[in-house]
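Quick one, T. Sequence first:
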Amino acid sequence: MADRFSDIVSCLGGPAVTPSDIEWVVDLPAGKQLVDWIVAQVEGAPESDEAISQLSNEQGLKACLSDIALETEELETLRKAQQLNLAVQDSDQWLLSKYLSPSRLRYSGLIFPGCRTAAFSRSSLQGQTQIGNGQPSLASMRSDIIHRHEVQKHNLKAFQDYLPGPQEVEAEASRLQSSLLSDKVAPMAVVQELQELLERMIEEEDSQPAVIGKLAEEVRSQLQNAWLADQVAVLQAQGEILDMTITDFEQNLIPPITQLYQSLSLSDARAREAEALVSALVEEIEEIADDVQDVKNTRSSDIAEFGTTRESEDARLEARIKEILEKSHNWVNREAVWVTNLPLSLNEVTAGHGALLSTAYQNSHVNTSAPFSVPMEVADLAQDAERRIAELRASIDILTKVSSLIVLLILPAQVMFFTSIPLLNLKGTAPSEYQYYVLDKSSVINGLRFELWDRSTSKGSEGQPGFSPEQVACSAEYQRPQDLSPHCQVATASLMPHDITQHLVSDCSFAWSMLDDLAPRSTLAFATWERVYEAYGRI
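Structure tokens:
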């Protein structure tokens, strides 16, 4: 029961309720009665409807609760209304009966166009069907009208057959006249009348021929009038028959025939249009067939005419391709020879220009700058070099007496240690913060950092700072021309106190040229795979 109640709440869009959450409600008598009543509202629905009984449990619940459950759009509208605190008046029963859910509105929007389309299709099909079915009905109606007209004409003709003709009327008039004048078969009344007439005739002898003649004329006129009346009746009957037939044609037969004529005219126009389109299509197809045939003929003629030309073109193209391939192979071979001879040529060039390169590096602003610049800068550099040379020569004479020995040790792994051993402490002060900054920044070479050592750094057996294998592995490796690399193992040199990099051709300088002197510097060490070369030849 609790499971069913939780399913109903879920289908109604309520909060997520598990059976364990409502166990305390079921334990109460009132709560159990309420839960049972809610569950009973949908318990009998699946069994009462075959369509719903075939659905699953969840689908059956949704079908049963579809009339009272709110849809997603309705829940969203209700939520917004609650957030806005809208005061909505209660709707009456009539408005609620006219309300349609959003799903029904969407469904009706899909149904109505389909119904209209189906109605249009049915009406068009019914029109064509009515035209087909109307032809037999019109034919039968026309047959009925004509048959009725023929029957009426036949009856009128039968009536006319009973009427006497003009000759018969004349003969009958003659017979009556003769009968009137004859006294053999006259009845008694006629005899009495004749007696009276005779009596009058006796009295008036001259009146007898006139009376008999007048009587004969009256009989003849009566017969003629009767015959004419019969003829008039016949003509009137014929007119009525014709009027009835015309009325039937005008009211019953002509309107359907007119409608049929209009439909046939429209169909005829469409048929003519379709016939014109079909004729145009046939003509276009014929033109396409002619064009295809022309293309085939042209292609065959081109093949027949230019077959040999194309073969010759292919041969020339093949020969040209072979020629280009041979040239490319020759150029590749020449390039390989040139690449092979390039190191020797470079050695010859560097061997002949070693002094020039040394001078260029010596007179450069820094070791990584271009050795040559625009003429004005070269001139300025030359003037500055002359001035500095004079100063350096004076400084060499001064520092020769107080300089420290520089021991260059080249280890078997070609790791060089550069150590400055201060002999004199001219100022007695340690390097400044700026000097340490320059030393620190100058120890980064090609993205690799070389640490600085001072007196607190542990030293090896020979009194030099110790280098770990990891530090040696992280050292930078430089490839210098052979003529710039010395071939000695240990060398000493006297260095200027303020411009040591002018004596060392190295991209790994410590920027000691920025220092004022060497005396206050602590013992420093430096590791590189490059041999240090002193420009003046003292190694």
